[in-house]
Specification:
Chain lengths: 282, 300
């Protein structure tokens, strides 16, 4: 009897320890990056583009990468949303009883598992075919291709949680499927959809491997879709690759900026979804 | 039918057809990626036999030697190590959250795990360089009686294991949630305590789902590029210990993509590497999704 209880206590301790390791690693990531990066974090980094000799320890900041990442992710999320919304709606409303939605869902799931690097290679191969050079436009396309499955899956999952009775009630009143979608389902799923959008946006802004070959890199802020564009993750990567300690320090500081953006996005999604919750029938 | 009703029906029909278009496009995406990669790796596949490419250890692109064995082994070492670390910790954490934790604690922990999932991979790589590599170089390697620069399989495995935590924990947690409450109650009624119930009923019932979660985590770790690239050292050797450097496939592609254009066969070799990666990831994902969908259908 005593032994059984001991065993349970032992395993409970192991479980708590495991959970502690997980949470501690999260804090360790934040703490190390902040401790190492904070000393070289400055307003200059946020407001200036790299000046001559920046990568040798000269003055300037990484505004080019911050703005570049935002351009890239905003462009990509708009395209991804335009593609994902109808897809999620189709999966939930128009597909009827056929097997097609099951198959499409499977394809989407697998697509979300494809490494972003492969999407980068894929778009790069297309670029070679059409003779294009790395630019903001192709970067946006790459990120859009890579986050569309993520966004669609997220929205689809949210729409599946809309109570079937709500749909039936609406349809029973004589509305068409389209009207039910627009006036009932979208409204009901709105908070969750917002979260999905912000999550996909975060994935886009944090990803480096996909835009490695397709977006190029530049020290200036792009003025057109044909210009190359810098991104924050790549800025971190490149600054870290230099042998100069001051520049590496800036990589740590840039990582703080990236983490701050990620944190901000997660906070915004929580606040927004709570605010929109009031339109939801529970 | 009045004209306004007709219009409403027409709108409904058109909307339905329009919504199908993106779904059709996305369905061809995977196929398009596969065929494009295959076309581009055809050159190397026509010059060398598949076993030669996969089993040869000599990687000298300029001399025409394309042996992928070191890269495949590098990927396998790093990924397996990450999973060995991550699997027990994730299972225990998920079981605790699902079976023992007070709902309030669950609510507090959940955002942390979501946050961990949202951290960009470059930041994980940076964390590895700042903390894990010095620890390996200065403490772990000397303790094991060897020397290491720190840039090693172990560093890659540790960083990757943290990145896999949120995926494993959230899926396993979900799978545990599908185990019917009645089964737990039946076991408890028979006099089993909570841990015995977990061990003999819940985990047994959740077993296929946990395997599916592990396969999924494995495939995610397999394709992870930046974080691993930053900490494994990128030396094209077959690692013989966890303190050796490695050169996983994604790192190979990411590192060499810019320069490869001058040598067409080199380009083809890298596309072949991407093809290997793609095929493995798709296979893993399909297998794991198949199991998960089956479980969902059974409980629904």
């Amino acid at each position: 009897m005593n032994l059984r209880k001991r065993e349970e206590q032992l395993f409970k301790a192991i479980m708590l320890l495991s959970l502690l390791v997980v949470i501690a690693s999260l804090f360790a990531v934040f703490a190390t990056v902040i401790i190492r990066g904070a000393p070289s974090l400055s307003i200059e980094m946020l407001t200036q583009v790299p000046k001559g000799g920046y990568y040798l320890g000269g003055g300037g900041g990484i505004l080019n990468a911050i703005v570049g990442s935002l351009y890239l992710s905003i462009g990509a999320i708009i395209i991804a949303f335009i593609l994902s919304l109808p897809m999620a709606l189709y999966l939930n409303q128009y597909s009827g009883k056929s097997k097609i939605p099951e198959i499409i869902r499977m394809i989407l799931e697998v697509s979300t598992g494809i490494p972003s690097l492969i999407y980068g290679v894929f778009v790069f191969l297309i670029m070679i075919q059409v003779g294009a050079r790395a630019s903001l436009f192709w970067g946006i396309i790459t990120v859009a291709v890579f986050i569309t499955p993520i966004l669609t899956r997220g929205m689809d999952e949210i729409m599946q949680t809309v109570p079937i009775k709500l749909k039936e009630a609406s349809l029973a009143l004589g509305t068409t499927r389209y009207e039910t979608l627009v006036q009932v389902i979208i409204r009901q799923a709105l908070p969750g959809m917002l979260t999905a959008v912000i999550l996909a946006f975060g994935r886009g802004i944090g990803d480096a491997a996909s835009v490695l070959f397709t977006a190029g890199y530049t020290d200036s802020i792009p003025t057109s879709l044909g210009d190359p564009v810098a991104t924050l993750p790549l800025a971190i990567f490149f600054q870290l690759s230099t042998p100069i300690p001051e520049v590496q320090q800036r990589a740590y500081a840039s990582a703080i900026i990236l983490l701050a953006i990620v944190l901000l996005l997660s906070a915004v999604s929580r606040i927004l979804s709570r605010r929109f919750m009031k339109y939801v029938i529970k | 039918m009045s004209s306004s009703t007709k219009r409403r029906y027409l709108k409904d029909k058109i909307a339905g057809k329009c919504m199908m278009i993106p779904a059709i496009i996305i369905s061809f995406l995977l196929f398009a990626i596969f065929s494009l990669l295959l076309i581009h790796s055809e050159q190397i596949l026509s010059m060398y036999s598949l076993p030669d490419l996969i089993l040869s250890s000599s990687w000298k692109p300029l001399a025409g030697d394309f042996g992928f064995f070191p890269f495949i082994m590098g990927t396998v070492w790093v990924t397996c190590l990450a999973m060995i670390i991550s699997i027990p910790i994730s299972i225990f954490s998920a079981v605790y959250l699902s079976e023992y934790a007070h709902p309030k604690i669950r609510k507090i922990i959940q955002p942390f795990i979501d946050l961990l999932a949202g951290i960009p991979s470059v930041v994980f790589g940076l964390f590895g360089i700042i903390l894990i590599i010095p620890v390996i170089r200065d403490y772990l390697a000397p303790m094991a009686g060897t020397t290491s620069s720190g840039y090693s399989v172990l560093a890659g495995g540790l960083v990757l294991s943290i990145m896999v935590f949120p995926i494993l924990i959230s899926i396993i947690y979900e799978v545990l949630g599908t185990v019917p409450m009645e089964m737990r109650e039946a076991s408890l009624t028979l006099g089993a305590n909570k841990w015995e119930t977990i061990k003999k009923v819940v985990l047994r019932k959740a077993y296929p789902g946990i395997i599916a979660a592990i396969i999924l985590g494995f495939s995610r770790a397999f394709g992870e590029t930046m974080a691993v690239l930053m900490v494994v050292g990128n030396v094209a050797i077959v690692p013989s210990s966890v303190f050796d450097p490695a050169y996983p496939i994604p790192a190979l592609i990411a590192n060499n993509y810019g320069e490869m254009m001058s040598v067409p066969i080199y380009d083809s070799a890298l596309m072949f590497a991407a093809l290997i990666l793609f095929v493995m990831v798709v296979a893993f994902n399909v297998a794991s999704k198949y199991v998960l969908i089956k479980i969902k259908r059974r409980t629904a």
